[in-house]
Amino acid sequence: MLTVHHLNESRSTRVLWLLNELDIPYEVVKHQRDPETHLAPQSLKQVHPLGKAPVMVDDDLTLCESGAIMEYLLDKAEGSCLRPNTGTPEYYQYQEWLHFAEGSLALPVIASLMMKMEQRTGDKPMDGYIAKEVNVDFAYIDATLAKQSYFAGSDFTAADIMMTVMLEIADKVGLLAKWGNIKAYLEKVQARGAYQAARSYG
Ligand SMILES: N[C@@H](CCC(=O)N[C@@H](CS)C(=O)NCC(=O)O)C(=O)O
């Protein structure tokens, strides 16, 4: 049975959400963040040397990186409509957003979250960098969602799962206040049953 190592309030929600969308059977091993440091417990290090979530184990394959796990699951569920056909314009939009979530958006969003948790302000290089990144990234995302329903076009795909989990953190930190299209999009995808089932794991 495919196993997902899930850390509460983490990117492993992406993997659980996709598994629910694809109807692939799985079991969940839960790991709990340290309430003070918010870091993962040692139990995750026993599964993978990085000690971060998500980790997926399927037979003799152990994988980390949420994007890579998503691609693995989509290969497993061959023919799923959650990844557009290779070579189509939608496929490359899908690829762009799948990578954008971790490659571009994660750094300013997670840095904002950390600074908020530490109640840190006045750090000039960091403030300037975050303000600039947040502005260009969210303007681009909002404009994309103004012209199409989902990140890869008119259909929901796994790129939406990758992006939503990062957008939710941004929302929690208060970065989405002026971006109406992103807020409306979040409400729409959060209404999906597969999302709600994934969130029930914490
Ligand atoms: N780029 C990786 C990021 C993995 C990551 O940083 N996971 C966080 C949770 S969202 C984690 O395990 N943090 C706890 C820790 O580092 O101790 C992915 O997308 O899977």
TrEMBL record:
Residue stretches in coiled coil: none
One annotated GO molecular function: glutathione transferase activity
The keyword Transferase is assigned to this record: yes
SUPFAM superfamilies the record matches: GST C-terminal domain-like, Thioredoxin-like
Keywords: Transferase
Reactions this protein catalyses: RX + glutathione = an S-substituted glutathione + a halide anion + H(+)
Entries under Pfam families matching the protein: GST_C, GST_N
Family: Belongs to the GST superfamily.
Record's protein name: glutathione transferase
Organism the protein comes from: Pseudoalteromonas piscicida
